[in-house]
């Protein structure tokens, strides 16, 4: 039982981690929690479905196109919805994000409505399960897990090793200082929203065979991803990854060993406990109070 | 509540075979009986009787009318029938409104499993309002029958993984699992069950009535081999008898596809049209209610059984059909008259 629970917990956890990463990317640069991120995930899934299933393009091509389209969507929405509010109180941006999430959901129903309640996305591999002794390994799960890990490492590399990633981090660290050293902060913000949308699309394309594609897929995922980001220490990419995997594992182990009624609530119980002991999460900066 | 699995009934097409009982349908004995042909024929040829009284997979006269102990629910005929409309509309998301209908479905699920010889029965359910409306009556039916579920697992409607549920059910070694889940959760469950080699009889309900869509969601070949589900209607969207409705839907809603839920709505609408026609041009609330109360053995051509109402019984549709995938086709394998 344990190996199954661990593998499925890691797979589900990788989904939470990928979505949490997108949240953290935007938060790091703008200090705004993007409550439209779940819906960006949903739109990413529909874009991938359009390219892969409706237009019959290859999976990798569909992934690239979905990510590119989401990047564009992020740039456009930043220009239309967020840029004017960047100097407004954070609550204005949060409300704009919530409003944008409803716009995306409505648009998805308008564009893709009528295709089915829960649209299946073809599995990436149709190979039957592999039995190793008493363990059954499901190739689909392994591919999704591997894909998620590749995505995470690419994003981590982007932030740590590329010029754009470093500019983004610098802006997140101190926007005023970044501006003083010649970084075009407005562009960085635009790029950040776009990268956030791109991570959502990448996650959706990878995970669509597991989650299905439907207009409401984003909201419950956002809650889990938010919890993962909080657990990891909001603002920390490794924290988001660790938080996501932790939630996936806790859910599965609690469901398997305690009771399936605990599957959904167990992670939140653990998070409450962790935050009582360490309010800043796994990797959040320690809060220092000057007396 | 009494649930009778129909063993013999009037032939649908005036043919020679007795209508198929579910209890027979899935057994070797049943498989060799002429009734099975009758069931198949119903699917393939039965729709030409739209609007004709009493020529369905109808119950026997003695089984038709059972008054409800729900006097407080019987005051407003339109409200009661409206449950069917609510169902048709809400079921676009796999939901269903009328609690009593849910109660009957739950009882039918258990009855069906037991009649197929299941000794060890397990349950997997959602526990939101929709799920509770089915889960609670199901547990009451278990009690009434003196059966204890060997496992009783919960699943969230938004879950993307059912590994813990499948592993716990597998440990209980059930002969049958009764599924009280929305299509998404049910598809995730069936997918993970297939992946983990867990293959008991699986019994669904009307939220899983669109078997073609459900098969696409599960997306694993043969995963639905032992899956049976209830349908309010006896036709599948690809049935030639639905050509007229398919054409109308595609004309007025381009890009949409006819689903089993549309067919449920069409069946309900057919009943309303009949009642309104009978009520005549002097249309009042009372006349509509009275005409509905007088509706007896009305054959919509779409519901598996005749529609009969009384002043005390406005749950006029009492005959869910059982459906199964046979290759690429959905097959109606029998009906379960459910009465109080």
**Structural class category of chain B:** alpha/beta
Number of strands of chain B: 9
Give the largest interface. Answer: A-B, 36 and 35 residues
Q: Tally the helices of chain B: what do you get?
A: 13
Uncertain regions of chain A: pLDDT < 50 for 5+ in a row?
A: none
Spatial order of the strands forming the largest sheet of chain B: 3-2-4-5-6-7-8
Beta-sheet strand percentage of chain B?
5-15%
Task: Give the helix proportion of chain B (percent range).
Answer: 40-55%
What percentage of the residues of chain A does DSSP assign to strands (E)?
under 5%
User: Quick one: biggest sheet of chain A?
Assistant: 2 strands, antiparallel
List keywords for this structure.
heterodimer, A: 291 residues, mainly alpha, two-stranded antiparallel ribbon, 11 helices, 2 strands, 73% helix, B: 340 residues, alpha/beta, 7-stranded mixed β-sheet, 13 helices, 41% helix, disordered N terminus
Structure summarized in a few sentences:
The complex is a heterodimer of chains A (291) and B (340). Chain A is 73% helix and 2% strand.
Could you please describe the fold and organization of this structure?
The complex is a heterodimer of chains A (291) and B (340). Chain A is mainly α. Chain A has helices spanning 2-30, 37-54, 59-82, 90-112, 139-161, 163-173, 175-180, 185-211, 218-232, 237-257, 263-277, and strands at 130-132, 135-137. Chain A has a two-stranded antiparallel ribbon with strand order 1-2. In chain B, α5 (77-90) runs antiparallel to α12 (260-279). Chain B is globular and about 65 Å long. Residues 1-100 of chain B have low confidence and may be disordered. At the A-B interface, α1, α8 and α10 of A face α8, α9 and α10 of B.
List the helices and strands and how they pair.
The complex is a heterodimer of chains A (291) and B (340).
Chain A (H helix, E strand, L loop, with lengths): L1 H29 L6 H18 L4 H24 L7 H23 L17 E3 L2 E3 L1 H23 L1 H11 L1 H6 L4 H27 L6 H15 L4 H21 L5 H15 L14
Antiparallel strand pairs in A: 1-2
Chain B lengths: L1 E2 L18 H4 L2 H4 L2 H12 L15 H4 L12 H14 L8 H17 L5 E5 L3 H16 L6 E4 L8 H10 L3 E5 L2 H13 L5 E3 L7 H8 L8 E5 L11 H10 L7 H20 L5 H9 L27 E6 L2 E7 L2 E2 L1
Parallel strand pairs in B: 2-3, 2-4, 4-5, 5-6
Antiparallel strand pairs in B: 1-9, 6-7, 7-8
Helix pairs in contact in B: 5-12, 6-7, 9-10, 12-13
């Amino acid at each position: 039982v344990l190996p199954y629970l661990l593998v499925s917990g890691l797979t589900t956890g990788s989904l939470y981690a990928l979505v949490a990463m997108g949240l953290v990317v935007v938060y790091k640069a703008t200090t705004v929690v993007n409550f439209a991120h779940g819906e960006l995930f949903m739109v990413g899934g529909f874009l991938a479905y359009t390219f892969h299933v409706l237009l019959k393009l290859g999976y990798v091509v569909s992934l690239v196109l979905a990510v590119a389209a989401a990047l564009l969507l992020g740039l456009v929405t930043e220009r239309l919805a967020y840029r004017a509010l960047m100097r407004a109180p954070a609550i204005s941006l949060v409300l704009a994000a919530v409003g944008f999430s409803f716009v995306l959901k409505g648009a998805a129903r308008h564009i893709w409505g009528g295709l089915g309640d829960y649209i299946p996305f073809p599995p990436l591999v149709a190979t039957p399960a592999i039995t190793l002794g008493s363990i059954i390994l499901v190739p689909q799960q392994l591919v999704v897990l591997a894909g998620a890990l590749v995505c995470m490492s690419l994003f981590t590399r982007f932030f740590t090793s590329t010029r754009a990633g470093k500019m983004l981090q610098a802006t997140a660290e101190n926007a005023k200082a970044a501006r003083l050293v010649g970084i075009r902060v407005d562009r960085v913000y635009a790029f950040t929203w776009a990268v956030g949308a791109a991570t959502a699309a990448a996650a959706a394309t990878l995970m669509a065979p597991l989650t299905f594609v439907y207009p409401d897929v984003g909201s419950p995922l956002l809650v889990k991803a938010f919890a993962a980001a909080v657990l990891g220490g909001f603002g920390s990419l490794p924290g988001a990854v660790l938080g996501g995997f932790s939630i996936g594992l806790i859910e599965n182990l609690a469901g398997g060993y305690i009771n399936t009624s605990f599957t959904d609530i167990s992670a939140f119980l653990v998070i409450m406990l962790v935050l009582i002991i360490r309010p800043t999460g796994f990797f959040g900066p320690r809060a220092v109070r000057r007396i | 509540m009494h649930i009778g699995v129909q063993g013999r009934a009037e032939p649908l097409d005036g043919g020679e075979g007795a209508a198929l009982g579910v209890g027979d349908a899935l057994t070797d004995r049943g498989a060799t009986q002429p009734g099975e042909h009758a069931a198949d024929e119903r699917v393939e040829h039965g729709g030409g009787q739209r609007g004709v009284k009493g020529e369905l997979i109808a119950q026997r006269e003695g089984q038709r009318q059972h008054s409800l102990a729900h006097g407080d629910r019987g005051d407003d005929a339109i409200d009661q029938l409206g449950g069917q409309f609510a169902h048709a509309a809400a079921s676009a998301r796999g939901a269903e409104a009328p609690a009593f209908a849910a109660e009957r479905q739950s009882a039918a699920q258990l009855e069906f499993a037991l009649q197929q010889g299941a000794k060890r029965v397990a349950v997997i359910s959602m526990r939101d309002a929709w799920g509770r409306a089915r889960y609670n009556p199901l547990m009451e039916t278990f009690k009434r029958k003196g059966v204890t579920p060997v496992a009783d697992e919960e699943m969230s409607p938004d879950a993307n993984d059912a590994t813990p549920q499948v592993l716990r059910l597998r440990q209980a070694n059930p002969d049958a699992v009764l599924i009280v889940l929305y299509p998404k959760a049910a598809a995730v469950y069936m997918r993970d069950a297939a992946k983990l080699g867990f293959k008991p009889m699986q019994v669904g309900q009307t939220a899983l009535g669109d078997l073609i869509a459900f098969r696409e969601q599960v997306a694993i070949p043969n995963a639905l081999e032992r899956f049976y589900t209830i349908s309010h209607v006896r036709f599948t969207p690809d049935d030639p008898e639905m050509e007229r409705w398919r054409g109308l839907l595609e004309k007025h809603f381009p890009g949409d596809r006819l689903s089993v839920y549309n067919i449920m709505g069409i069946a309900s609408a057919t009943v309303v049209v009949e009642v309104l026609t009978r009520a005549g041009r002097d249309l009042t609330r009372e006349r509509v209610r009275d005409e509905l109360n007088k509706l007896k053995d009305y054959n919509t051509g779409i519901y598996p059984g005749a529609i009969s109402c009384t002043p005390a019984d406005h749950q006029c549709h009492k005959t869910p059909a059982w459906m199964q995938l046979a290759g690429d086709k959905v097959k109606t394998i029998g009906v379960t008259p459910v009465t109080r």
